Amino acid sequence: MSLSEIKKSAEDRMKKSIEALVTNLAKIRTGRATPGILDHVSVEYYGSEVPVSQVANITVADARTLSLQVWEKQMAPVVDKAIRESDLGLNPILLGETIRVPMPPLTEERRRDLTRIVRAEGEDAKVAVRNLRRDANDSSKRLLKDKEISEDEDRRFQEEIQRLTDKFVAEIDRLIAEKEDEVMTV
C-alpha cells in the first residue's frame, strides 16, 4: 500500500467518523421539532422492523410540533405506540390517520445534561479520528521499516496526516459548538 493510498483511506474513514457524529447529534433532541428526531424509531410492518419514515410522512407543523401522516390507517396506532415507547420522552396525540407529536420544553438541568452528552459524542469522534491517525502513522512506519520509503517521506507523511487530523478535529469542535448553542437556546 502506498502513502497516498494510506492517506486516502485515513481521510475517508475520518469523514465517516464525522458523518457518524452528525447522525448521533441529530438524535439529541433540543426542544425544537425536527423530523430527524424520529429516525431511530422503528415499527413492525408486515413482519419486519422499519423506520417510522417508511410508513408515514413526517413534517414540521410548527416550531414545537411534528405531524405524521401515516399511509395506511391501521398503522397509526402502531406508530403512536412506537413513539411512546421510544427513549425520546415524547407523548404523541393520535387524530385518525394523523399523529401530532408536541415537543416538551427542556428544563435548564436537562439542557446541561444534553450538553454533556453532546461533548461526550464529540470526544468519542475525536478519539476515533486520532486512532485513524495512529493507524496511518503505523502503516507509514511499517513501510519505512521495510525500506519502501525514506525517513524524509515518512516525516512528510506524518505531518500531512497531522494536518488532516487537525482539520477533522476542528470540524468536530465546530459541530459540537453548534449543537451546544442549539441545546442551550431556549
From TrEMBL:
Tell me which residues make up the Ribosome recycling factor domain.
23-184
This protein's source sits in the domain of life called Bacteria
| InterPro entries tied to this protein | Ribosome_recyc_fac, Ribosome_recyc_fac_dom, RRF_sf
Intracellular or extracellular location(s): Cytoplasm
Q: Which SUPFAM superfamilies match?
A: Ribosome recycling factor, RRF (SSF55194)
Tell me which UniProt keywords the record has, alphabetically: Cytoplasm, Protein biosynthesis
Does the keyword section mention Cytoplasm?
A: yes
Q: What is its main location?
A: cytoplasm
Q: Tell me the CDD domains matching this sequence.
A: RRF
Looking up Gene3D superfamilies in the UniProt record yields: 3.30.1360.40, Ribosome-recycling factor
Spell out the Pfam families in the cross-references: RRF
Q: What does this protein do?
A: Responsible for the release of ribosomes from messenger RNA at the termination of protein biosynthesis. May increase the efficiency of translation by recycling ribosomes from one round of translation to another.
Stated family: Belongs to the RRF family.
Protein name per UniProt: Ribosome-recycling factor
